[in-house]
Write a structure and sequence with these properties.
Chain lengths: 139, 139, 139
């Protein structure tokens, strides 16, 4: 049993940019040499989230529209009165979807469906430098 | 420390069918002989999700109604224009709830509440054969 | 490799009280002496959830308002017709956000952002005694 850790850096534009990190996580799993175990993908920071989606342009638009409908960017949030940075909606979207995803590793590969990609969504209202932590536990 | 893996197959009708998989996961934990650790329950595919709920008929109806309210099945989605399979809403519901759940194992059993069951929700718009991966790490 | 487990008890007022448990989880990680690994934070019960948020009074108000908008407490739920306990909305909010969070541990500390705190949200409609299970796997 071992633990392997990898950090990847992303430059995002914010505004619900959806970044497909599946290849980077696959590579980290391959490099770790773990045959059976789990991998946790975690986004550092409170205005971005991690989930899976079929990564294709239509759904990327759809999830942005859904976020805008459920947590509108032009509504009034108490957070913005506290800090004045205007990204209260981004925090809420991030908390709703969540910052963490754990995927099984079986026979050396993640048990993802063919149309199931791991994505980071940057909900913030500006460009950000992001760090994704990939933590692999297994044997 | 060891890793134990089990796959279970489900036949679902889609349309937000809620499947209680608690007994199957409990059995996998018992079979693994792990006293202290964690179990990850992961659904393969991008139109289903995993969470916990009190599994009773009222809440099953309520969560379907909630999904329909938050992500209506009769709205227009860009995904459907791409593929024409009409299940854009199912992808979005799945990404919102998420495909993965990790539960602690203590003294040989999962630390679930009495009224807290592990469920797979199949959001797709048709019958599906599903695979759930149960990955146990512990000692 | 080892597994370390800790339970913490919370007294909450329910009604979407947001409880910052970051310090307790940090302490558990430090006590475990794990340098590289993962920590799972899990809430026992089906009317509370775990996520990360920037813990400041504005966002605490905002997330309560968001929950009230997405899953209103004064709407009619089938669960309440089953049990008559009037907390159907609390179950739904809990299932949507989810009961579990897994965070990497690197160089002995959790990889949380500066403004990213681990919180338990008690969605129930009354005071509750809660148990949070912190499960650490690593070396």
């Amino acid at each position: 049993m071992k633990v392997k850790s990898k950090k990847i850096k992303l430059q995002t534009k914010g505004k619900d940019q959806v970044v497909n990190v599946t290849d980077e996580v696959k590579q980290a799993v391959a490099d770790a040499g773990v045959k059976e175990g789990i991998v946790t993908v975690f986004i550092y920071g409170s205005t971005a989230s991690v989930t899976t989606i079929e990564y294709e342009p239509g759904l990327v638009k759809d999830i942005r529209n859904l976020d805008e409908k459920l947590v509108p960017s032009n509504a009034s949030y108490s957070h913005d009165q506290t800090w004045g940075d205007g990204n209260g909606y981004a925090h809420l979207r991030a908390s709703l979807i969540g910052p963490s995803l754990t995927v099984p590793i079986a026979e050396g590969v993640m048990t993802l469906g063919t149309w199931q990609q791991i994505v980071v969504i940057d909900h913030d209202n500006r460009s950000r430098s992001r760090e994704v932590i990939i933590q692999i536990v297994g044997e």
